[in-house]
Input
Amino acid sequence: MVKCRRLVSVLLFASASLFADFNLDSAQAFVDSIVPGSRYGLSVRSVKTGKELFNIRGTEKFTPASTLKTLTTATAVHFLPLDYEPKTEMALNGSVRKNVFWGTVNIRGEGDPNISGRYYADPFYVLNSMADSIRSLGVDTIRGKIELDSSYYTGPWKAEHWRKNFYNAWYGAEIAPLEFNDNCTMIRFKPGENEGDTAIVSILPDVGYVTVKNELVTVAGKKKKWTYAIDSVKSEITLGGTIGIGVDSAHLVLPIRNPVGYFNAAMRHAFKERGIVYQENLDVPQGIQIRKFVYSGAPFLSILDEINQRSQNLHAETLFRNLGAQKGGEGSVEGGKKMERKFLTEMGINPDDFEVWDGCGLSPKNKLKPSVETQLLAKMARHPKGEFYINSFASPGVGTGGKRMLELKYPWLTHFKTGFIGEAHALVGYVFPMDGDTLSVAMYLNDTGKNPDATCKDVLDTLWMRLVASTNDNYASLMEMKRLWLDAQNVKGLPARLEYFSRAMFNKPYLLGPMGESYLDSIENKPLVYMDSVDCVTFVEHTLAMALATNEDSLFSVLQRIRYFNGKIGYTTRKHYLLADWVGEGKFARVLPMPGDTTIVRTMPKTDFFKAKKLKYMVNGQVAKDSPMEIRYLPYAKALDWSSQVYEGPMKVLGIAFIGKSEKIDATHTGFVVLKPGEAPKLRHASSLKKKVVEQPLAEYITSRKGKLPGITLFEFLPQ
Output
């Protein structure tokens, strides 16, 4: 047993223990202190095992707000091919005579939400392409009619159970199988020339569909006190209030009414702009279909990004209905719900744990359980198309995370989906720990009452960042190891690499017991990688990991296989005893016989060691008993003599164990012995006396331990 490592750290955690700097009690206390009266829900689940690690109110139902979109998009990823594109078809039924098309232009919509300026710079891009298709036939005049086929959706198109004010906001735009410009318009206005004048108003894009009743009056100064109202049936907007003459300009993005009518007006506008004269004749015969064109605004993965990264409700609602139309036989809310229930059943999740009323999460009647949400996310992470699903989520600086969690030093360690409606805030998604697992996480704040929305968001962001930091404690150390490894790519052979990396760590500060099992165990939840400072064992372990790793991405796993039996991270599987466990395992090192060495028998008190932590000593999953072991070592006098001799031979780097006097330990210290031709052996080690990693003559160190050191054991490192 190596005394320089703190093996018994009496840190006892309650059953609520979670991670270093993040535990369930402190998380709840933090919420209660900042947003009193609110209800907090949390679930954290391992994607690798599917096991829920921790939860707070995990089985209670919460209003998920926009995080319900994770279910809509997961269902779509599961059932739809990655090359799926919602289509808009244009069929010409009639005949062409010279430059005139006589007949019906039939346009059938299948719920494409990207006929807009969201995906293209020009919102008319797709509509202009449709007009250009007709022009390509030599046609510059249409005499007939435009028929818009909206049968792809059935049942109410307008989402139900939303709060009334949602229908008058851009994010609550109506849904239709034919959509244009997010089913919204922009009203731009600026003050009139003189006080008392009505404001100057413009509509963008102006396709002759939206009308504005302008009652906005210009007043002195820079006051902004305008109001608006939208007719419940017509796309008629009343703009009122006042605007200061010193105001430059302002705008409102507002939803239109009857999206199919809006599409019709935009289509006619595109015809005009592309040089096609439209002369309506409702009595023209239908005629035979002479041409058919198919258009798509954007591919499926772009739609996922709009929904999960930018939380676009229109896209979620259309995809929800498209799922029903494509796979459930009905393009409606009920069709979408049918497919979601089928998806959940196929994934082994109880559909009743989700109460679904829409596809985007605006309905306050939507409910779900945090523990079931993380179950969904974990299963999607293991899904064959899971990579595309995860990458569609936001992250710090991206999408709805554009202004959130920007303090995270390593923003790529998390992806998330945000959610907010009145008195309900949510964050769900993924955290990527250093151990190679992925965690699915769901956090909810409901019943927030009069607590400010910004404060509620900050609370969730703070807890989320603590979780990221705790599961990636000292991520900078792993980055340092990768940098060192990359710098040494031209150093070949295990001895040379051990020499290189051990030298690279000269002057690294000494710290007793700097490492533990992080969030994976509550006994010593210190970092799994720690290069800020080292003790004698962690110095050897990090050096050996860098020397053995075949690429920079394998550094973490190699280090954990060195530290833990079979690489299984846990306090009970850590190699606590240097010779009995670390060398004795025989996978990374083996004892090197020396002339004149001797053997003693000792029994390491592992039963008592683990009992002090209220644990049982286990071997291969079975309770074990202490057993005697042989310790082969070179006695003190012979060790001093050997260390004083000039070495002749090829350069080598060996490990060394300094045998303890107590019968209950095997070794008190360790390090590297560097053997170079023409030089006496040198000891490189993390010195508790000098408080850093140093090199000194081995004979000097052995001399300093006279009377306290029975002898030394040398061991050689094994190539992998």
Notes: The chain has 18 helices and 29 strands. The longest strand covers residues 88-97.
